[in-house]
Amino acid sequence: MATASPVTFDLLATDPSSRGRVGMLHTPHGDVPTPVFCPVGTQATVKTLAPRDLKELDSRLILANTYHLYLRPGAELIARMGGLHRFMAWDRAILTDSGGFQVFSLQDLRDLDDDGVTFRSHIDGSEHRFTPERVVVIQELLGADIAMVLDECAEPIDRAYNIEALRRTHLWAERCLRAHTRPDQALFGIVQGGVFEDLRAESARVLSAMDFPGYAIGGLSVGESKADMLRILDVVAPLLPADKPRYLMGVGSPEDLVEGVFRGIDMFDCVLPTRLARNGAVFTPDGRLNLRNAQFKEDPRPIQEGCGCYACRHVTRAYLRHLVISKEILGLHLNTVHNVHFLLQLMRELRAAMQQGELAAFRQRFLARYRVADAQARRENRQAWGCRETR
Amino acid sequence: MATASPVTFDLLATDPSSRGRVGMLHTPHGDVPTPVFCPVGTQATVKTLAPRDLKELDSRLILANTYHLYLRPGAELIARMGGLHRFMAWDRAILTDSGGFQVFSLQDLRDLDDDGVTFRSHIDGSEHRFTPERVVVIQELLGADIAMVLDECAEPIDRAYNIEALRRTHLWAERCLRAHTRPDQALFGIVQGGVFEDLRAESARVLSAMDFPGYAIGGLSVGESKADMLRILDVVAPLLPADKPRYLMGVGSPEDLVEGVFRGIDMFDCVLPTRLARNGAVFTPDGRLNLRNAQFKEDPRPIQEGCGCYACRHVTRAYLRHLVISKEILGLHLNTVHNVHFLLQLMRELRAAMQQGELAAFRQRFLARYRVADAQARRENRQAWGCRETR
Fold first, then answer.
1. What is the pLDDT of residues A283-295, one digit of tens each?
2. Would you state the pLDDT for residue A244?
């Protein structure tokens, strides 16, 4: 615990118009300018993208899911194949979640106690057990640059449950920290506490005292209202150490990225851009388009005028609609390329705005133009979470 | 008809040990070294591959299917979007088949007369009619570099039916030739006649007299035995003009490509490499592997040692098996990259062998090593043909 962390963070600039920060995350697999959006590679692949595509998009840090890889193909197998980087041919940085989020999403299939959680596989129903120590071992076998502690992702609006869950989450964070040994991997803590400001503040203080090299904010990507998420970020971010990276887990949409950066978040991950793409929905500065709509049948424009992604530089909405309607895999790939590019480009623009000290104005312009998907679409996106998110 | 063809063929070398030929096909969208294997882009996309991937593979000529594109998104729409090249962002050469093969595969859904064929869409059951003239118009709207005449793809072993079908095929070839006007597109004839040497010879003579800029040999990719195919190639190839390209439609497997080139064929197309890839089967010099098999679970080798494709340069059989078992799209893509590379590389090696005058020895070595998939697998491959081949 006393040794230097293999992942360090340099705070390069702060935006005077907000809590926004520009930084650089140094990892054993390269530097990552922050704020950063991490595409999600649940099963050791960011769906429809090869490593060459992610490099063309200049993605520096991607996520992989411990729960999924533990079940299939197995962490030991990946270790014997040289670790996750070599297995998936990705020589840049990787972060693995702890699997807690997925296990708690199993609901009826799990059994919790203070020592850990027993659950059944969504693939074959077989029984498994995650403890803080076991989750650290699994993540050390996978060998990502950043691992996460096992936390309890509680129903965010049940106060009594959150008090109990937070006690366990802090206990587990300490046990993970003690168990962690891999010198080329950093272990981040996770702040929980539901929608309750006092619990969140307590969690931030308790975890800060444990001196993790980075801090995540969990439990804000599902179930709660957007107002709750922003309110909690306003409370938690100022309580976290300024010289450590802050990671908002499972978020998000373009508007949530802007709001998160505005509140001092440095790292984000979400399946939204890749999942939406496979449903035919693509981001533009004016909001989402669904390419299945008949209005795009003969639309000769790219998804987004002036966009630098491969899809926008080469094909029209009409062609993409044809691919989506014809169930062609290339349509899923090109939409994914665009959506991931859109979020990575948004992060580049947010960094530039902060370097100019103009994040507040950028946020105002962005949110005035970007038509947020309606409540129904938001609800659907947030419902499709956890371990069932494999397609 | 008297104007110069926009597609010309230079015969560069002949192999003294076989009927094999090395040539160059000149098209409005670039030169194509022959013999060439053309990946199939049924619905205006070679399944799972973007144009950038096909260029990385150095594919020079791809196929698209008139029947499918006529039904969806429609030839007029593609014409209004600037033609097929621009629509699918492919600036190299394209060949469209006439749609006859797909329509005749519809069996119970078609109604044939001397003037044309009426059929129902496999998508929505709507009624349509192809005549020789209509099929030329549709292909001129699509705007490929090479279009094909409408032919009747008859049951290959029914002699009486083949005599009747051949009469119609020759009648339609002439009508297509008269109807064709697009100056930047060549129209190729198609030799038919089933498994009957005299009918095939007659067809080769009749069509040669019509002076097409290129000749296809149809009806040899389904239903007949491999021995029949080779016997017919031995009869037909020598009867076709030496200074025109010869195209064996719907073939094939690695061993069929070698046998076809050995008999003087210059062009091939087949869905086999892309379809097999999506089923988890990949080519190697020793035969096919099915990556679903448990034996590959921890196999640290690439699909093929020394292969230059992106998949073999970056990932293991174990990773590809994981992707296939986990139903990840990247697995379909990487397997497709390898299989298309394998056939394009085989064609490069065949050209080199002929330039050395050593095709017979190359063929012997290749066939001695390449374990041909069993009869059952061959039958399955050949059954999955025609318009139903969209997944």
1. 999 999 999 999 9
2. 98
Residue B94 to residue B148: CA distance in whole angstroms: 12
Q: Which distant-in-sequence residues (6+ apart) come within 8 Å of A86 by Cβ?
A: none
Taking a C-beta distance cutoff of 8 angstroms, is the pair B121, B69 a contact? Answer: no
Q: Is the link from the previous residue into A6 a cis peptide, with omega within 30 of 0? A: no
- DSSP for B19-67 reads S-EEEEEEETTEEEEESEEE-B-TTSS-TT--HHHHHHTT--EEEE-HH
* Closest by CA position to A229, among listed A262, A272, A273: A262
In chain A, residues with a C-beta closer than 8 Å to the C-beta of B81 are 298, 300, 316, 318-319
Cβ contacts of B284 within 8 Å, gap of 6 or more: B303, B304, B342
Q: How far apart are CA A17 and CA A288, in angstroms?
A: 28
How far B87 CA lies from chain A's nearest CA (Å)? 6
Whether the pLDDT of residue B383 is over 60: the answer is no
Whether a cis peptide bond, with omega within 30° of 0, leads into B252 is yes
Q: Is the Cβ–Cβ distance between B32 and B39 less than 8 Å? A: no
How many CB pairs below 8 Å do chains A and B form together?
110
Q: Where are the domains of chain A?
A: 8-272, 277-375
Nearest chain B residue to A123 by CA: give it: B326
Give A186's strand partners: A146
pLDDT of residue A156: 81
Closest CA to A267 of A92, A65, A61, A36: A36
The architecture of the domain spanning B8-271 is Alpha-Beta Barrel (3.20)
Cβ atoms A215, A249 nearer than 8 A: no
Cα dist from A238 to A249, A259, B162, B173, whole Å: 17, 15, 83, 78
Residue A277 and residue A330 in contact, taking contact as beta carbons nearer than 8 Å:
no
End-to-end CA distance of chain B: 38
CATH of domain A8-272: 3.20.20.105
SS3 A252: coil
The model's pTM? 0.96
